[in-house]
Amino acid sequence: MLVKRVEVNREDLLDPTNEAWRRTRGSKTVLSPIPLAMQPAEYVRVSWEDRPYGVVTSMRVTAFHNGQEIFFRLVWDDATVDKQIADIDQFVDAAAVLFPVVPDAPLIGMGAEGKPVNAWLWRADWEQPKNVVAEGMGTTKRREDPALVSKAKHQRGRWVVVISRSLNGKDSPAGTVRLEPGATSKVAFAIWQGSNQERAGIKAFSPAWQELEIEA
Asked: Are 17 and 153 contacting, i.e. CB atoms less than 8 angstroms apart?
């Protein structure tokens, strides 16, 4: 995936419907349910054994940077808007952009001990995304990150979400990914369908890292 450099200001790139994003359709990313065998809790494995989950099967991703910040625009079909939790059986729509903190960090299993993965997590009920680090299933730690911002819009039966962070990771928590113009990394994506009660490890995800090239 190429993160193209564009001469567009921050406010326009944060707008999911801005015309700057309409110049390209982005790339289609196929999503799959994460294997139940990877769930650390037996209760989760048993209770979801005969239930469909990871129901979002694909999304479209476009990525730009303006020399200072990087922007990912995620688009996926979702007929319902789930952005508040009013009872214990309600969950919200969510999405994440994932990166390996070290080159050989495994995506399956959300990293491993000493090989963390970093996720920028958007939820429909949050004002700001969270910075997440994990070294294996069940080890997720959420951190506030003033460098992370997002804007989202639900229209015509789909979510359109932009997630952005400063390129050099300034003000971001220690141990999270650093991205710079001219550099290469890897990336993956995940979606949670709130109306299907998806949360935590019950999700749809892109099951392999994609090469990420940040245009100089």
From this structure: yes
